[in-house]
Amino acid sequence: AAHAAARSRGVPLYEYIRSLSSAPREPVLPVPQCNILNGGAHTNWESTDIQEFMVMPVGAPSFREGLRMVAEIFHALKKVLQEKAFGTTVGDEGGFAPKVTGNEEALTLIAEAIEKAGYKLGTDVVLALDVAPSEFFESGVYKLPKEGKKLSSAEMVAWYGELKKRYPIPSIEDGLAEDDWDGWRNMTVALGKDTQLVGDDLLVTNVNFLERAIKEKAANAILIKVNQIGTLTETVAAVDMAHASGWKAVISHRSGETEDTTIAHLAVGLATGQIKTGSTSRTDRVAKYNELLRIEEMLGSNAKFAGNVFL
Known about the structure:
Elements lengths: L1 H8 L3 H8 L10 E2 L1 E5 L13 E5 L6 H21 L19 H14 L9 E5 L6 E2 L2 E4 L4 E3 L1 H14 L4 E3 L7 H11 L4 E4 L7 H10 L4 E4 L1 H4 L2 H13 L3 E5 L9 H8 L4 E3 L6 H17 L12
Parallel strand pairs: 1-12, 4-8, 8-9, 9-10, 10-11, 11-12
Antiparallel strand pairs: 2-3, 3-4, 5-6, 6-7
Helix pairs in contact: 1-2, 2-10, 3-4, 5-6, 7-9, 10-11
């Protein structure tokens, strides 16, 4: 329906979506959270406990350049993995799924690939994690299948704090399980000042859950999946509510994707500044990146790139 409405008005889809917002912002091309290494349940715990390791080209001057950077890092990682005799099969989201010893080794390999591609970790590129620990949360305890550890909520948060000391990780999605609301509040106090804490399983793009999380200060950003909430109107309302509360919103794909490119227009039209749509392999993921390149071309000299959304 949105596609038809945009066509009948003779405007691009992102422009139509922007008109639905209660507080429209200037269109902005998002920084991609590009998945380059998969783990967790997506790989049957053969790789890492953390489900997704992503790179974000925050130092790029434009979307086009940012995309080139992440594509180069993806290929550099393939070389690094081959040199170290790891497999280079890709997981659900298009990132590599090597049988590494654990989370630490995955981060080390990614850091090496970034350097090999000629970029500087921390200025050109930062890291984002999607932990998805609802998969291994049992009776109040986080049982990390790969590392064989049992951690409390507080210990999980302390672990992220340690990782953040060693790597630039300004974004952690689903750092704790979806029913661990107390843990989320404590994590937001501990890490929320300098970390984007994204609720996905916690909030399931639901305005009621979002309202509760804003009130309780559990998380400070929401992952937005259009087909999770059902309608475009509700999606726009969720982003508007997040923005009005000083929260960030990240537009996202689903694990099982098609080549539909609506989410590219959502990210630009609602000026979320971030998009999560998998790796630069697999056509269903690449379709979104190609559409963003077309939108950037369409906007011409008016094209703005979100750049470092964490400054």
